[in-house]
Amino acid sequence: MRIILLGPPGAGKGTQAKALAHRLNLPHISTGDLLRQNVSSGTELGKQAKDFMNKGTLVPDDLVTRILIQRIEQPDIKAGFILDGYPRNINQAKALDDMLSGRNMGIDVVVYLDTSEPVIIQRLSGRLVCSLCGANFHIKNMPPKKDMICDNCGGRLYQRSDDNEETIKKRLEVYLEETSGLIQYYEARQKLYRISADEEAEIVLNNIIHLVEKYNDSLKV
Ligand code: AMP
Fold this sequence. Notes:
Elements lengths: L1 E5 L6 H12 L3 E3 H10 L3 H12 L5 H12 L8 E4 L5 H12 L7 E6 L2 H9 L1 E4 L5 E3 L18 E2 L6 H15 L2 H7 L3 E5 L4 H20 L1
Parallel strand pairs: 1-3, 1-4, 2-3, 4-8
Antiparallel strand pairs: 5-6, 5-7
Helix pairs in contact: 1-9, 2-3
The structure holds adenosine monophosphate (AMP).
The site of adenosine monophosphate (AMP) has 16 residues, from α2 and α3.
């Protein structure tokens, strides 16, 4: 199974992608995580990406696509993957189609996480991320058991530098201008499935699993 999670920032793509990857035993590929790893380890690519990320704008397509190709070439993606944060525009969607078809692969399902703006702002402004394992928490909705410590691995939690009000607004603007057009792109290819993502994370996850199971059943008919 090759699944894309699509939706505005704050729709819960990261949380859902991690949980789904765990349930389906598939790797989770997040271009945001890959970029942040490059920024924190100070690679040339990270240096080029950093300012775009801090402003909330998109990193140039060729940089992100390069990172993704490196990841797609790893052997663990043979059984499939959950892709989160890519594509962000039509150009990237086409690049993804090319990179997969060149390897005799294709996308099976695109899950669009439909979320309202007040929920997005509330989620992002309280989000906490583990510095070791990347797990997501929330100051109010999903507080860690110990203050600023990850329940899963004991790592320190931090607030992402782009989760401030000004950058959140910019990221939403960028999403509307550049990413939302992907809904039509995948709808036209009959790959898009909509899931309401304003609900609690566990309900949303069960709805996604149900959808994936139905898709798998339809392949058997
Ligand atoms: P995310 O973790 O998906 O919210 O991404 C954080 C930031 O990384 C975004 O605001 C962009 O600056 C950058 N980014 C992540 N994925 C992409 C992508 N596919 N194309 C361009 N920029 C990206």
